[in-house]
Amino acid sequence: MQRYEVEILLVEDDPNDVELTLHALEAGHLINRIQVVRDGEEALDYLFRRGTFSDRDRSCPPRLVLLDLKLPKVDGLEVLRQIKSDTRTKLIPVVILTSSKEERDRLNGYLYGVNSYIQKPVDFDQFRETVRQLGLYWLLLNEPPPAGRYAAE
Amino acid sequence: MKETRDPVAMAGWLAAGAGAATAGLGLAVLAGWATGNLRLIHGAPGLPAMPPVSALAFLLSGVALLAATLRWNRVALVVGLLVAAGGAVSLVEWSLGVEFGVDLTLARRLAAEIPFPDRMPPNAALCFLLTGIGLALPSGFRHRGHGGLPGALSGSMVFSLGAIALAGYSLELPTYGWWKVMTRMAVHGAAGFTITGVGLVTLAWRREQAQVAGPPRWLPLPVGLATLTSTLCLWQAMEAAEEAHIEAHARLVGVSVETARQALLPLPELVLPSVGLVTGLLLSALATAAVYLALTAQRRAAQAELARAALERSEADLQRVRAELEVRVRERTAELESFTYSVSHDLRAPLRHIDGYSKLLLEEAGARLDGDSRRWLERIREGAQQMASMVDDLLALSRMGRREPARRLAEQRALVEAALRDLRHEMADREMDLRVGKLPPADCDPALVKQVWVNLLSNALKFTRPRPRAVIEVGCESGERGEVFYVRDNGVGFDMKYADKLFGVFQRLHRREDFDGTGVGLATVQRIIHTHGGRVWAEAELGRGAAFFFTLGEASSRAQEVKAAAAAGK
User: Fold this and answer.
1) Can you tell me the ipTM of this complex?
2) Residue A9's CB: how many other CB atoms inside 10 A?
3) CB pairs under 8 A between A and B
4) pTM score > 0.90 for this model?
């Protein structure tokens, strides 16, 4: 099995949401190797190894990106668009995890090639269960794209 | 040169020209008398002379006309009255067969050696009387609102008397005379009256234009009067010609005039004057009517044009307002969309945090809290979740209102079945009698109307919960305005005096601890039905159950109007 330096990249600006999401991941025993970035620009810097992340090991992309939509600086849909339009990152599974289930957001998300769209439930029990299942599915059940193909083409 | 193109200014120039010409004529003839120039006195050799008093009257007429044109009203009044008085005195002389000797005095003074000609003929006297009145009346009594009519009437008569006399000289018909009076109107006098008449009418027109634009309403009257005057002159000239013919015949044959008349009576020429008179009278009536009709038609056309222009303007206004409204609606919709978007994003996040931290607190510190504290934490969580569903429902409601129904013929039975599938969790473990009657297809937005069925059936399920056996009936009956769909239950019902509150947002007729829900379901139903142009109402009895009815409206109602307006806007 391939080794991932970081398994989950959590793109979330709200500190409360970060804490609650980490709690939920912890409950699912998925807290290992998680990178939190707090806005869209930071997310892109991380993924494309720019700025503070310029010395990150290029062979180790995250296995999953959990992406909020309403983000400072660069919003979530733009981050998604850049991820999915760049050959280096387009194979990384991206899950939108957001408050909104507006038709427009869902439509744009899928148009830009998101792999999954989840609305954060208000009920914390449901939220925890959702995040747990999400982690299980994408990190354990789902087969990742073959390694080494990230930088292809 | 804007001045010359202005018809009112041009009328002024024309009237002034006529005045100057008339005055010039009078002056010239007076000069002729003073110098003994026969050419000036007679106009042409062998023709009747213009008496000095006529020449003076022409001079004064011209001055009065000029004064009236220049709006020297006092001068026009005084001189006009003088001219009228001259004409009147002459007419009195003729009718009484007396002579005041004015003419003689003037003639002797001017040229003693020239033999005194005939007096001013009665038709010339009438012309001066009319000219004087036509100039003095409007100038002296402007404030009485005579407008141009007196001037136009006198002008038309003066013109036709002059013109018919002129014509008589070329037709060799004695129209220049006056019945059996032998004195004739001089040829340049006739021309002078023609010009004066034109000046008078032009002045009257200009006076009228100062008040109302367009042809004056009185136009048929001078036209008719001119025709009538010409007819009468022509008639009397023909009569005179006939009389002369009879007299000549009598002299030739050597019989009395009466005998000659009897002998000649059957000749068709002799009835000619009468025929001429009748024809002329008819012609004047016809001319009057024709001008009147033409004017009326023109006025109507102008009114129609005005109305059309106004209509066009108001239509353009309407288009503009409609376009503005559409832009505004689009702006408002965009604003509302960004508002609801931000609500759906930002309002839910704090609620999630309240619930999440309460839950974490319960888990981490629950053991150290007493029963009350734990219960309170649970209440906090319930409150947060309740508010979250209210936010969701409000968003759903606002989405429904924004959406224009995408109508097509939809099987209501299929929609009801889909709704029941959505509600299967609420129906699980329930003893119930669900009767779905015959449902015709209806023209509606299926996605929206399915939501109506979901909300109504969900209510029916909710309020029959206390019943050991729920009876829910879905059906359709024919009403006055098309099909009426209904959902009837044997639930707890409600008091009809609160029926008006039923469809309000967040309005509840039951306590929350008895029946859950946010109070948005029926508001959503109402909004969907209204966007379809339909009607929704309820009948209920407390403790006996409730029934909700709705119609789906016509596709041709509001929705299509809106669509048509949008299409017209493009």
Assistant:
1) 0.83
2) 21
3) 57
4) no
